[in-house]
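Reviewer 2 asked us to include a model.

Predict the structure of this chain.
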Amino acid sequence: MTVKPFLRALAGEPITPPPFWLMRQAGRYLPEYRETRARAGSFLDLCYNPELAVEVTLQPLRRYAMDAAILFSDILVIPDALGQSVAFREGEGPILPPIRSARDLDRLGTPGLLDRLAPVIETVRRLSTAIPSTTALIGFAGAPWTVATYMIEGGGSKDFGHAKRMMWGEPQLFARLMELVTAATGDYLIAQIDAGAEAIQIFDTWAGALPETEFRRWAIGPARHLADRIHAERPGVPVIGFPRGAGVLYRAYVEETGVDGVSLDTSVPLAWAAEVLQPLCTVQGNLDPMLLVAGGEALDTGIDRILATLGKGPFIFNLGHGIVPATPPGNVARLADRVKAWRG
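Predicted model (structure tokens):
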């Protein structure tokens, strides 16, 4: 059986042209997504509806024939499944009752976790047979630090003041929360793999908010635990880490977590990534999502620069973060055509 290009690249094989997919490739920039989202009710209802979640996962594949499909869900299904209610309000983002004390944390737990997440696992199961035979299926979860920030802050944050105050001021409480989230995340990812996910991506969107010593403990540590568990319990399933904003700590993240691939944010210098990171693992990235909005020659130049610098080694073309809603679908088609036509 032919190994899918995305999985070959994650195994360390340089491929021309490189496989590609885009973070948030199923999303609000597509009119068909907006129509499906309206039918679902709330955003979480969409995440927990296997029929509709499969549909929105497939929508970008029909348009652009990406080399990988990523499960349509959200990183906050973990706190929701742990018993912390999650709501999404238009224009506000996620809203959660904040975890600020031991009493708050005592209300959460893993019993029934996978029962609550069963609809998401069913989405993975259906996708494993619905996607094209050459397309790989990516499962994912938020990294424990990033998920914990939402749980403690009660939503998004600019300075992560409550999360850092707990991390430094109540270290035992914070460690207990992180252990709970890490264990739940591991169970969730293993269940996704058992349902058909062929690779895993761990999104640490707010890793860059951590100072170096805390980055090593709370970004690298949990990612290493999750990668080790997946490699031990489900050998052969590759793991991609995305420590957004890690800067020069990207190297330590790759070396100390044992991930098979690393997703680069837009700030990572390409020449440095090629010299320092690519000999260690497959790299993925890192086009600025706003170039997809701008389009034209600027988009072409950005694509070509990444391909020329990273395309000779193990590489997966992607963005440095997720597609934004203002993206014209025609610009995504332009990107897809240009990447597929590249011959080095």
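The longest strand covers residues 136-142. The chain has a mean pLDDT of 97. We have added this to the supplementary material.
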